[in-house]
C-alpha cells in the first residue's frame, strides 16, 4: 500500500511525528502530501532552536498555532546576551541581524496567530518590551508567558502584563536582569491570579552602564564596612 492511499486523517497523524524539515521534504514528493503539509491542523505547536530556523519555509503560521517555543543556547548567539556597550562594531552588526529576524517573526505571530495560548522565549537576547506588548495585545487568549534570560525585557513588559494580560495565568521572567523588584511587586498586586516566577531577575545587575557602576560601588562599600 502506497502512503498516498491513506486517508487525510492518517496522513496528518504520520506527519505529526516528523520534524519541520522532514515534513517539508516529504511534502515535495507529491501534490497530495503538499496539501497535508499545508493543513493548519498540523501546525498547532512550533519549536525553534536557532535564529536561522525562523527564516526557513518549513512551517506555517496561522490561527491554528496554540503553542510557540523559541529557545537557543548555542555559542554563536551568546554575544546577543551581552550588554550593547560591551560589544564591538562587528558584534553589534551581527546582533542587529538577529534582532531584525526575531522582531519580524514575532510581528508575523502577532498578525497571524491570534489564538496563541503559550509562548516560551529562552535565551532570546533580542526580544524587546515592544514585541511582548504587541503579542499581549494581539493574542488575548495567551495564558502562559515564559521569558528566561531575555536580557532586554524590563519593567515595561511587566506593566504590559497588568494592562493587557487578562487571560495570563503563568508568567516566568527568570534571569531577566533588567526586571526590578518594584516591577514584580506591581504585577503581584495587580494580577494576583498570575503565577509569577522571577528567579534571580531582581537581584542581577542591570544593563545600564551608569547603574552597573553605581551598584558595583555599593557592593564595594559593603565589603569595606565588613
From TrEMBL:
The keyword Membrane does not apply. The keyword Glycosyltransferase does not apply. CDD domains: F-box_FBXL22 (cd22129). It comes from the Eukaryota. InterPro entries: F-box-like_dom_sf, F-box_LRR-repeat, Leu-rich_rpt_Cys-con_subtyp, LRR_dom_sf. This is FXL22 protein. Keywords: Ubl conjugation pathway. GO terms for cellular component: cytoplasm. It comes from Cinclus mexicanus.
Amino acid at each position: 500500500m502506497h502512503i498516498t492511499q491513506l486517508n487525510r486523517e492518517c496522513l496528518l497523524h504520520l506527519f505529526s511525528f516528523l520534524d519541520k524539515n522532514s515534513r517539508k521534504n516529504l511534502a515535495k514528493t507529491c501534490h497530495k502530501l503538499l496539501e497535508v503539509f499545508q493543513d493548519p491542523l498540523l501546525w498547532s505547536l512550533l519549536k525553534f532552536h536557532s535564529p536561522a530556523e525562523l527564516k526557513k519555509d518549513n512551517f506555517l503560521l496561522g490561527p491554528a498555532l496554540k503553542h510557540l517555543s523559541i529557545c537557543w543556547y548555542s555559542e554563536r548567539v551568546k554575544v546577543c546576551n551581552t550588554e550593547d556597550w560591551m560589544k564591538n562594531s562587528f558584534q553589534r552588526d551581527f546582533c542587529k541581524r538577529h534582532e531584525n529576524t526575531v522582531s519580524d517573526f514575532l510581528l508575523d505571530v502577532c498578525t497571524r496567530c491570534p489564538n496563541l495560548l503559550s509562548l516560551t522565549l529562552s535565551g532570546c537576547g533580542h526580544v524587546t518590551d515592544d514585541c511582548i506588548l504587541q503579542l499581549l495585545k494581539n493574542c488575548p487568549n495567551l495564558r502562559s508567558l515564559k521569558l528566561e534570560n531575555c536580557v532586554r525585557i524590563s519593567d515595561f513588559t511587566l506593566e504590559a502584563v497588568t494592562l493587557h494580560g487578562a487571560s495570563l495565568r503563568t508568567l516566568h521572567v527568570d534571569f531577566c536582569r533588567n526586571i526590578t523588584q518594584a516591577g514584580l511587586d506591581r504585577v503581584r498586586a495587580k494580577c494576583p491570579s498570575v503565577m509569577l516566577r522571577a528567579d534571580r531577575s531582581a537581584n542581577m545587575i542591570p544593563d545600564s552602564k551608569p547603574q552597573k557602576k553605581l551598584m558595583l560601588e555599593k557592593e564595594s562599600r559593603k565589603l569595606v564596612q565588613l
